[in-house]
Amino acid sequence: MHGEPATGKKIVLRRLNQYFRDPVFIGYQTTSDQEGKFSFDKIIPGNFEVSIETDRGLENNFAIELQTPVTLASGETKTIIVSSEGMELTGQLSAQNGSKIFWTNVVAELSRETGLGAPPSRNNFVSNKSHSAATERYYKDPKNIELMKQNRKFVGIISDRQELSFSNIPPGNYTLEITAFSAPEKGSHTFQKTHFIRQKITVPEKPAEIPIDLGELKMEELCRS
After folding, report:
1. How far is the C-alpha of 80 from the C-alpha of 71, rounded, in Å?
2. What is the percentage of the chain residues whose pLDDT exceeds 70?
3. Domain extents for the chain?
4. Which residue has the higher pLDDT, 61 or 204?
5. CB atoms closer than 10 angstroms to residue 68
6. Which residue has the higher pLDDT, 196 or 23?
7. What is the pTM of this model?
8. Band of residue 29 on the pLDDT scale cut at 50, 70, 90
9. CA distance 26 to 94
10. What's the CA angle centered on 108, arms 155 and 98, to 5 degrees?
11. Alpha-carbon span 59 to 56, nearest angstrom
12. What mean pLDDT, rounded, does the chain reach?
């Protein structure tokens, strides 16, 4: 991660096209060693995704990044590398209208755009049965599975000076989402979203300058109910 071995990280393997109505949830987890190595044993055949998952300490808000697809046949052993190569992106965070932000509670994520549509909405169906059938078709569609394999998320680093940076971002189109959370009240573990920004980002094959400057990223204050 960021050029260094992912030592002592939670590594998660889950079925790629798993959805909430699957009769059996298939997921495994382990911890990488001092060299960043890990292994899973006795995995059933199928399409899977391996990722690095980190608890941010924000009320079960986990950072999931570097999703890497792997397809296993019966009795097969595979070696994969969970890493990425590409450009460095930088930007400067600020609060719109000077509103207060707890910068230690800010999360920045860059998600690759794959063209995969959203799962079927229950609102578009007259019955649970028809919705379930459409959902199953969605998750088992070979074209959708191939697009799921392209899913990849990157988590940014934010400095004490509110400088944002992403490392090793491959060329492509991305969605940048940055969310700020409140500091929890005394005796509470609830974090509320206070500020947010979403932008489309394109990382070119041959950028004019490296690192790629995202400029000033002004976070908008969210209305509180």
Report:
1. 11
2. 92
3. 1-83, 84-114+150-225
4. 204
5. 18
6. 196
7. 0.84
8. very high
9. 41
10. 160
11. 8
12. 89
Sheet of strand 106-112, all strands in order from the earlier edge strand to the far edge: 153-155, 106-112, 172-181, 193-203, 212-221, 87-95, 163-169, 157-158
- CATH numeric code, 84-114+150-225: 2.60.40.10
Helix (H), strand (E), coil (C) string for the chain: CCCCCCCCCEEEEEECCCCCCCCCCCEEEEECCCCCCCCCCCCCCEEEEEEEEEECCCCCCEEEEEEEEEEECCCCCCCCCCCCCCEEEEEEEEEHHHCCCCHHHEEEEEEECCCCCCCCCHHHCCCHHHHHHHHHHHHHCHHHHHHHCCCCEEECEECCCCEEEEEEECCEEEEEEEEEECCCCCCCCCCCEEEEEEEEEEECCCCCCCCEEEEEEEEEECCCC
Q: Is the peptide bond before 23 cis (omega within 30 degrees of 0)?
A: no
Answer yes or no: is pLDDT of 60 > 70: no
Number of residues that this document lists for the chain: 225
16 phi and psi angles, rounded to 5 deg: -60, -45
Place of tokens 């990849």: 152
CA distances from residue 205 to 13, 100, 126, 209, 212 in whole angstroms, order as listed: 30, 37, 46, 11, 12
